[in-house]
Amino acid sequence: MKAAIDVGTNSVRLLVAEVTPDGLKPVMRENKVTRLGAGVDQSRRLSEEAITRTIRALRDLTIKIPPGVPRIALATSAVRDARNGLSFARLAQEAIGVPLQILSGAREAELSFMGAVFSLRSLDLQGPITMLDIGGGSTEIYTGTPEGQLLGGGSAQVGAVRMLERCGSCASSIEEEIERTLWPLVQETLGHHPANLVAVGGTATSLAAIIQNLDAYSDEAVTGVSFSLEEVRDSYAKLGRLSLKERRGLPSLQAGREDVIVPGAAILVKAAELLGFSRLYISAGDLLYGSLISSCINSS
């Protein structure tokens, strides 16, 4: 078994998985919303309150890792953008017991692509495949082959938490900012002539659960499902009409996502539109999955 921890802008996540000839078999998944990246877009600093919440969550998650299981820990947008990111990384290492790797946007995109492609191998999707990972602080778009060959992509400074803080609840402002920021990365992606789009990350998997009207969220229930862009647009519009209290009442939406699910859905819809896709696949196999796959390849 191996364990991976992801310290994201909105949440801290743990994946413990067994390595099998067919890939990875998840044994434990845990997720705690800590909003580490609150205010980072403006201040370029992690707040003391957010650091305290996140370090507490890291300690709680680390305790759940079975004794002797190797672990890796990764940090993404909020930590790499913050001026005090390295200071936070030292605190995190004390809590986790291993160094916290601060990923570049490009490396985050590569690992998320690997996770998406390997988790959906049974679907035999035609390539090239473009992976879309909507996070709290950034969005990664990466394209490669179904066999895992990397073609290219990167990261853009547009994420669900970032858009909420910049634009509030104004849908038109959010959509304009998304299009402006994503367009250079979209243009690069279109040059690879992608045949399929796979969306990963909390926004995509939450929307998949909501569209299916699940009584409770399940990674297995959202991995490999396919939706039309119209279905996603419809869900985005319906969520936008709900109050925060009403969104909190959705059984398949994790507590703490009720305010960021709408800007996250806006990013998903706009990215699919710009890329020219009328249908997309969803997978819970993302950065965590890809990081464990990569560690297995590098150690073999």
What layout of secondary structure does this protein have?
Blueprint (H helix, E strand, L loop, with lengths): L1 E6 L3 E10 L2 E11 L6 H4 L4 H16 L7 E5 L1 H5 L3 H12 L3 E3 L2 H15 L9 E6 L4 E6 L5 E7 L3 H8 L3 H20 L5 E5 L1 H10 L7 H4 L3 E3 H13 L2 H5 L12 H15 L3 E4 L4 H13 L1
Parallel strand pairs: 1-4, 4-5, 6-9, 9-11
Antiparallel strand pairs: 1-2, 2-3, 6-7, 7-8, 10-11
> What is the residue-averaged pLDDT?
95
- Helicity, as a percent range: 40-55%
Q: What is the string of helix and strand elements?
A: EEEHHEHHEHEEEHHEHHEHHHEH
Structural class: alpha/beta
**Tally of DSSP helical segments:** 13
Kindly provide the radius of gyration, computed on alpha-carbon positions and rounded to a whole number of angstroms.
18 Å
Fold and architecture overview:
The protein is of the alpha/beta class and 300 residues long. Helices cover 47% and strands 22% of the residues. The chain has helices at residues 40-43, 48-63, 77-81, 85-96, 105-119, 160-167, 171-190, 202-211, 219-222, 229-241, 244-248, 261-275, 287-299, and strands spanning 2-7, 11-20, 23-33, 71-75, 100-102, 129-134, 139-144, 150-156, 196-200, 226-228, 279-282. The protein has a six-stranded mixed sheet with strand order 8-7-6-9-11-10, with helices on both faces. Strands 3-2-1-4-5 form a five-stranded mixed sheet, with helices on both faces. A hairpin with a 5-residue loop joins strand 7 and strand 8. Helix 6 packs across helix 7 (171-190). The mean pLDDT is 95.
